[in-house]
Amino acid sequence: MNVNQQTPMASPYGQPQPGYGQPSYATLGGGYPDPYGPYNGPSTAYQPGAPPQGYSPYASFPSKAVAEIPVSDLSSPLDLGSARGPPTSAPPPVSTPQAYSHYTHGDTQNGPPPMNHPMAQPAHRPPVSQPYSQSAMNLSGPQSSYPQQYGAVPPMQQMTNQMSGMQISSGPPTSAGLGYAPRPSSQPLISNTYLAAAPPSYTQAPPPVSAAPSQPPPPSEPAAPQPYYGGHPALQQQQPFPSSAPLQSQPFPLSAPYSGPPPSSQPQTPPVSQQQSFPPGPPSQQPFPNSASLPGPPPVSYADPHPTQQPFPPRGPPPTSQTGSFPPTSSPPAQYLGPQPPSQPGPPPYLSGPPPRGPMPPSSMSQQQANHLPPGSMQQPPQPGMQGGYPPQQNGAFGQPRGPQPGYGGPQYPMQQNYGAAPAPAPPPPAQKRLDPDSIPSPQASELPAVQKSRHRIDPDAIPSPIQVIEDDRANKSSEPFTTGVRGQAPPLVTTTFQVKDQGNASPRFIRCTAYNMPCTADMAKQSQVPLAAVIKPLATLPPDECPPYMVDHGEGGPIRCNRCKAYMCPYMQFIEGGRRFQCGFCSCVTEVPPHYFQHLDHTGKRVDCYDRPELSLGSYEFVATVDYCKNNKLPQPPSFVFFIDVSYNAVKSGMVNIVCQELKTLLDYLPRENPEVDSAVRVGFVTYNKVLHFYNVKSSLAQPQMMVVSDVSDMFLPLLDGFLVNVNDSRMVIESLLDQIPEMFADTRETETVFGPVIQAGLEALKAADCAGKLFVFHSSLPIAEAPGKLKNREDKKLVGTDKEKALFQPQSGFYSNLSKECVAQGCCVDLFLFPNQYIDVATLAVVPVSTGGSVYKYTYFQAETDRERFLNDLRRDVQKPMGFDAVMRVRTSTGIRATDFFGSFFMSNTTDVELAGLDCDKTVTVEFRHDDKLSEETGALMQCAVLYTSCSGQRRLRVHNMAVNCCSQLADLYRNCETDTIISFFSKYAYRSILNTPTKTVRDTLVNQCAQILACYRKNCASPSSAGQLILPECMKLLPVYLNCVLKSDVLLPGADVSLDDRAYLRQLVSCMDVSESHVFFYPRLLPLVKLDGGSLPMAVRNSEERLSKGGVYILETGLHLFLWVGANAQQELLSNIFGTPTFSQIDPNMTNLPDLDNPFSKRLREIIDSFRSQRSRYMKLMVVKQEDKTELIFKHFLCEDKSASGGASYVDFLCHMHKEIRQLLS
Amino acid sequence: MATYQEFIQQNEDRDGVRFSWNLWPSSRLEATRLVVPVSCLFTPLKERPDLPPVQYEPVLCSRANCKAVLNPLCQVDFRAKIWACNFCFQRNPFPPSYAGISDVNQPAELMPQFSTIEYIVQRGPPTPLIFLYVVDTCLEEEDLQALRESLQMSLSLLPPNALVGLITFGRMVQVHELSCEGIAKSYVFRGTKELSAKQIQEMLGLMKPAASGPQGRPVAPQDPSATCRFLQPVHKVDMNLTDLLGELQRDPWPVPQGKRPLRSTGIAMSIAVGLLEGTYPNTGARVMLFTGGPPTQGPGMVVGDELKTPIRSWHDITKDNARHLKKATKYYEALASRAAVNGHSIDIYACALDQTGLLEMKCLSNLTGGHISMGDSFNTSLFKQTFQRVFSKDYNGDFRMAFGGTLEVKTSRELKVSGAIGPCVSLNAKGPCVSENELGVGGTTQWKICGLSPSTTLALYFEVVNQHNAPIPQGGRGAIQFVTQYQHSNTQKRIRVTTIARNWADAQSQIQHIESSFDQEASAVIMARLGVFRAESEDGPDVLRWLDRQLIRLFMFHLRRSPFLQVFNNSPDECSYYRHHFVRQDLTQSLIMIQPILYSYSFHGPPEPVLLDSGSILPDRILLMDTFFQLVIYHGETIAQWRKAGYQEQPEYENFKHLLVAPLDDAQEILQNRFPMPRYIDTEHGGSQARFLLSKVNPSQTHNNLYAWGQETGAPILTDDVSLQVFMDHLKKLAVSSAA
């Protein structure tokens, strides 16, 4: 499999490469990621020609080179590395990552590889933390490293290629690959392609040499990278590399010709060398100077490319290894230079390649170029490189990270030369292999068995790395505010911390789209299979430095709206006729402006008061709703909270009742309010229940609360009115007395049966009687088997799991709760459910009401007061206090041409357009899928307006409006350039999780795989430059799609292990349905941080979720949004353990602790700070679980290492990538 | 020999029995010709301070279908230690404990003066009395406050070991748990949903979860703590309950304009009945319902909550327009039967200006021997005194109430039992002495009387079955034995046995004797009861016609005009109330009800009874009328003017003051003993309340004939009713013509 994904165009490269980048990065050196940024710059530089080199040096480089030769694909293939790298590199200079990622990069990379290499390498290497220095030392050395890399690389690439038939680098890269071959080794996958491509490219390389000039730019990048490198833990990078290297080598064995062994060592080294070379390069490289000066900035601008590149930097490690070899390489550089030229020729091809890409991603290209522009001169060269390099880039995709290397390219080129040299030894085989890659298909078949064996050998570092992408994005996009004024601009990733400036479109905190460039026609959309959806979080909490939506009051007449489609006044309304009318941007209908709203227009046709009115200038704002927007035309009452506490035996025994009652006493002071100085208007009521319900009269005039037992649960009613819902302050004494007495009263209860349906009914009746909306907090412990409406039976049957009947287990047992939830929604009664089960409790059925009413479900299986108290209380506190709206209706209006057709989340729909939410809190998202019902126009783009009518916690009726405009495109390439994988995955998971209600789980999984395969195949077919079928080419912005998709497929819901209960699956199923993108992202791909030096304000860089990444001597922290683990390696240093646990001995660590001891040392403090910050980021409190290596609890922990094979049969990342590739190839053939 | 009057009086004092005939016609034919059946008024628990109960079990006839109790009429062979049953002639040996019996050493039950004797028997553990308050909370605050106080006061009147329970209702029904500390706990039921007894017990947590095991193992004994949650000894929960009553709130549910409050009386009663049924079956218990309005929702609803729909009137009932009447009546009858089966009696204390649905609910009390009290408000002395009087005590310091009574009647062969009329239900005990002709509640020899007071009186009807051609030997006597088993208010189980005998007389030869043995008063009441009984089930006019055909006596004129039969001017509720009391009071009271007593006070002489006639209303008299339900003091025109002028304050007119005070004192005396407390009215000539008097007196002078009489005396009555004079004239004419 050719892992190399050829991103369609540069863009893919830039982005995808990142993933690949890792691998490539590895080769590149730890610093690369950052360097990538620079690389991008370099890439531009590469474009000039240098890029190719850069690529080649890195595994990606080769690939790039290959890519160049092969086609633009190469660049794209590597999407990850090459594509990104190149593009980034190229763009980096410019600043716009996209550009980098785009063809140019790839091209540049490919073509430039050599060029780039020199260029980029230098840049990168500098970045490479440790290695860099060394490399820097080696400057000359780097080159030598390259050769090594080549040697090493090839194997890698080959391996990959052979393995799955996946050519990380596209076949095309082969051309360049030959030359690159060596690189491949370093950048396994890439290298493969590269190898193949490189050789040719190398030959071409010479031209690249010309590119070399471009290299100068890289230098600047390198400079940038360097800083990064510094920043980046070189170690990490290094580590991956080594491992990756070997891995690659293994897989490659098939490619053996490449010389497996060399790859490992070489690959690593090469990067280093490159890096090393880079440093020198940078300085030398003129263009880079800019970047150099910009080191920091460039990344930003490079953002896209960087991400990819960043991973590379981490590879710093390789450098280490390389270092040794590097020295030689350093000399090689010179050689490279020589070689580079040949490679350059490659680049030229790339350049030519780029052009082709140009068509594809023209825009992007142009952008990239534009970005590159600064490097301007550089760019041009890169382009040539691009053309030639495209293929390489594609190859680079994997190696693309190398793409970024383009920058490296400069240095790399020399490297490439080295490669040339190195290649010489290794190359030959690589070349063959690469050649093969194209033909790989055949090998694949035969390989298959081998593949399996060999799969292991695919270098995990050579495949797209989420970490790399995340880091690149963070590096590039976190420093400048994201302004929403530009239509169709993809926001930074959810993992990146950034500030948003609302300039007319809703902040990504409110709305994230799967695609920011929608296809104009339904045909295109169908062809691409890319889902068009928006994940909307209407009441999202904004960080303190961003202003919450302004409140607009249009007076008695209410908000001004379009006469026809009823869209609310927004920036998309066009005022005409001197301001007397406005034309609706959604339906084009012309509406009179009411006199009180009239305002003159200025010479540009804008209203003079445009910037004084939020609704004319901002993407998000709120209207004060008039009485017309209220139920029964009556202004609403403030909402009420009713607490329902299960007091059956289990609930009491677990300590839950006691805890809840204690907590409520203080918690009631923190009911939501809008003005912190005023008492909350929310009234409260209390009910306890087992198989009967106990209502409490807590009227302020009573000396003691009164309990009213309702045992007629078959026909629920509210036994009292006055005194049930009370103001907390008025009745404080009575309430406290009540909360004190509840635990005592039921301390000796022997009642084990509970009811549930009547509980909800009671709350509903209470709210009805009080004529208000509100929320029910239900604390429930067991399956409701008592005779009552909504009685459930235990239907857990493990035997059904995996069968066609499994879906029934996700459906509610009866229609009772569905009907009940309808009534709840009609009343604005939101239900939050806290479950404390000791056995099967049928979450699938119990959650129906919460899910339909916009509520939340919390589950604390085997709840124990000592260990779970904190988690539960934090959840409860947050749940009670969080801002929310009641009795809400949400409607999404869109411009003509598309239509919101499907909705996912926690809500109820009585018709096809209105999303009714009894409650809507700040953590809930609604995912909306759009479909075409007509054509869209590229000029107007696609508009959507999400309006949420709700009652605030003080009883005010409001309308919150979010507007969002995205671009439309008639070229598929544009679509693929502006997608957001995280959002797509979020959508897919929600879609799949809903599908299992009606479809066998296996079918759902297959459908998912199939759709993704189609997406990628469509890209390959329509956007990527032609390349070997054996090459896996991924769009830059979707290069993580496979790894994330695999995580979704392996999730407990879709592929349960034997120890996963039906309840857990049902629970997760509904949880995911209303997660926002950042939650779903970390849920599917947990964050794994090594706990090394924790000084400073930044977090250590994450590592990939694989057991291989864990060092026995380390301590790691892993968070999923729901779980938090602290993994302690068996050989962890005593000092580390002392700092964390206060005990130096591994065996003395208490695995049952849920909080770290409060130790007075900086490390402990910082660690606890980090844990606290993790917890505060998530809507649910995460209990800390300490996992000791080789302890039995480690199994649980390993479950979250989602790149590994899972116990339940889920594929490892590598295996799945192979599988994916196969699917794509089938589709293509 | 004493006169019949003395004999009758003596019998009544000793046995509480008054027969219509004290000589019985010896054949069926003759008996039929007498029109008034052989019948009696029997007061089972007539107070007998001179009758010490004996502490042993009665001796029963060994014949299975007889089981008559050894009595003074039995023939005893002291030597053989054998006695012969005077009903079935079975010869029975005395039990061993009677071994010492002899001519001179006779047990009490054989002595003639012990024709009524009371046994105290040991049957099972003594069970405490139970009082379950069922309180309506849909009251005006003032009423509720008064009621609260009355209830709190009542707690002090209960014996400490009595169990009390509290159910309140309005829109919902709340059963209050009394044993809990700290937090007042109650079980709430929706007022619209009918629940079976089993459901109620389940919902109250009174069922043992495991008790329903299919293995049919013996049901575990009631968990005392479970039952006690709702019914607690007074001494334990005195404070709790006082507080609880003090905190009793008005029903909090808003009552929209134009609506009646929603009152779930039906469900409240069903829960009360169900609760007792499940916890204390066959134990003396008193459910006391305090209501301030008609049931407006759920089963047993009497009227909807729309104020624009008035509560049913006689007119509606006649026109069959009372939507809820039949359903509600049926519902309450079913409840009453259940309560009766378990020996629980139900009181109704209804205080409202409008009707409260007594018509529908009356059977609750009528069938279970409970009281009904009707007033305008809980904040009146009428209610307060009545309620207090429920807990009055006798000479022994025991409550004047008994529970779970069973009355069994045994007759000698020539007689059979036709039925009974009174606060009782049939136990459907068939036997040889059950007549095929039913009068009142018949077809049985046993009746259940759940609530008994010393004045509770039943009318029992008999049929002479002896054939004309099989004459009874001269001097033969017929005998009747009443066996009453009941739970005394001191929780003892007692059996009271009354055995009486009357001579048979041949109507042809001894018609004079028979005639002289006629007890006019008793007969009047007995026949009136029959009339009322029929009125309950038949149309008014038919009953009147029946009555006219049956009897023509002076008092009948008043009876015809009484609210017992005449519904004009009385609401259905009032009629129910009056009838309720009529069928249970003893003879004296009943007579007052039929023909009110009018006393006149004047300077002309000592107070004297005067004719209940409009002619008696004179300006210089003060009249005191006692109708049993009302006590009216009427000041004549002149007297009233004097009083207004304040002469009584002047020492020289002290005699006038005495005149004014005299009727008040007499009235007070009546008020103190009467149960229920009568409505006390002090009015004067021309006063609006004078209507109570004017509606009762014989309208000998009306606006039609006032001047024809040409006299100045009396007060004209504005009525179209005929006067007694006219009635009698008419009657005479009819009698003559029919005779001809």
UniProtKB/TrEMBL annotation, chain B:
SUPFAM superfamilies noted in UniProt: beta-sandwich domain of Sec23/24 (SSF81995), C-terminal, gelsolin-like domain of Sec23/24 (SSF82754), Helical domain of Sec23/24 (SSF81811), vWA-like (SSF53300), Zn-finger domain of Sec23/24 (SSF82919)
Pfam family, one: Gelsolin
MF terms (GO), sorted A to Z: GTPase activator activity; zinc ion binding
Domain of life: Eukaryota
Annotated ranges, domain Sec23/Sec24 trunk: 126-391
UniProt keyword annotations, A-Z: Cytoplasm, Cytoplasmic vesicle, Endoplasmic reticulum, ER-Golgi transport, Membrane, Metal-binding, Protein transport, Transport, Zinc
GO cellular component assignments: COPII vesicle coat; cytosol; endoplasmic reticulum exit site; endoplasmic reticulum membrane
InterPro entries: ADF-H/Gelsolin-like_dom_sf (IPR029006), Beta-sandwich_Sec23_24 (IPR012990), Gelsolin-like_dom (IPR007123), Gelsolin-like_dom_sf (IPR036180), Sec23 (IPR037364), Sec23/24_helical_dom_sf (IPR036175), Sec23/24_trunk_dom (IPR006896), Sec23_C (IPR037550)
Domain Zinc finger Sec23/Sec24-type: 58-98
UniProt subcellular location: Cytoplasmic vesicle, COPII-coated vesicle membrane; Endoplasmic reticulum membrane; Cytoplasm, Cytosol
Start and end residues of each Sec23/Sec24 beta-sandwich domain: 402-505
Gene Ontology biological process: COPII-coated vesicle cargo loading; intracellular protein transport
Bilayer topology term: Peripheral membrane protein
Keyword Protein transport among record annotations: yes
CDD domains: Sec23-like, Sec23_C
Predominant subcellular localization, coarse grouping: membrane
Functional description taken from the UniProt entry: Component of the coat protein complex II (COPII) which promotes the formation of transport vesicles from the endoplasmic reticulum (ER). The coat has two main functions, the physical deformation of the endoplasmic reticulum membrane into vesicles and the selection of cargo molecules for their transport to the Golgi complex.
PANTHER family to which the protein is assigned, alphabetical: PROTEIN TRANSPORT PROTEIN SEC23, PROTEIN TRANSPORT PROTEIN SEC23B
Protein name: Protein transport protein SEC23
